[in-house]
Each structure stands twice: as C-alpha cells, then as structure tokens.
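Final report, closing paragraph on structural work. Over the funding period we assembled a curated collection of sequence-structure pairs, and we close with a single example.
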Amino acid sequence: MAMSVGGDGDEDEVISAINTTPLVDVMLVLLIIFLITIPVVTHTVPLQLPKETVMPLQTTPKSIEIAVNRDGDFFWNEQHVDAPTLLTRLKTVSVQLPQPEVHVRGDQSTRYEFIGRVITACERAGIAKVSFITEPPARGG
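Its predicted structure, as stored:
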C-alpha cells in the first residue's frame, strides 16, 4: 500500500468537475438556428379577411310585469287593470312567438288569494313561464 504524495504525470486522476463549455456552445448554436428559422416558418400570405357581425338568431320578447298591491289591485306594467282585462291581455300575449315571460310582483302584505288569481289567469291564458320577483334580504341580517 503506497500513498501518492507528489504530482507525477503518469497517474490517471478522475476529474470530478463537469466541463460545461461544449454544452453552452451547442445550446447557443441551436438558439441561433431557431431564431433564424422561426420567422420563415410563420410567414403567411397577407390577406384581408372579411368582417362579420354577429346577429342574434332569436330575439327574446319583452317580459310582462304584473304587480299586485296589498288591496288586491292588478297593474299591467304600471297600468291599473281589472281581472277580466288582465285575462284578455294575457290571452293576446300568449299567442306570440316566442311567448313572453310573466313576472309577478306582490306586496309583502298581499293576501295569497290575489296572487293566486294572477296565477290562475296565467294558466287560463296558456302562459308557460311565470316567475315571482322578490327583494333579497339585507346583507347584515
């Protein structure tokens, strides 16, 4: 068992450091090649494409708002109507294509009977979509 103390040139030593210079040279060459070839590949024929506007295929009808106050009076889009007039107006609207939606707004203290009359009139007229408009509660409580 001998121990080498001096630096004789005959012995083969393992170099533990990696020489990255050739790796950097190859990467720079590849980068230059890609920078030169990418504009050639993405080159297209200059064209002026036609302009197109989007037109809706089906227009939505205006919704009908029926309000009922605490006394049981009916209002068709803020115009006072009685029960027979309400039914005839709903019948004339129900034949429209597409059929408009009916939004029912009822006072908080209105009896359910009056709201039921509006729903019954909508059923008799053949209205398909009836919805109720409510006020969301306050955020704090």
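The first helix runs from residue 21 to 41. Strands lie at 64-68, 74-76, 79-81, 102-106, 130-132. We thank the funder for supporting this effort.
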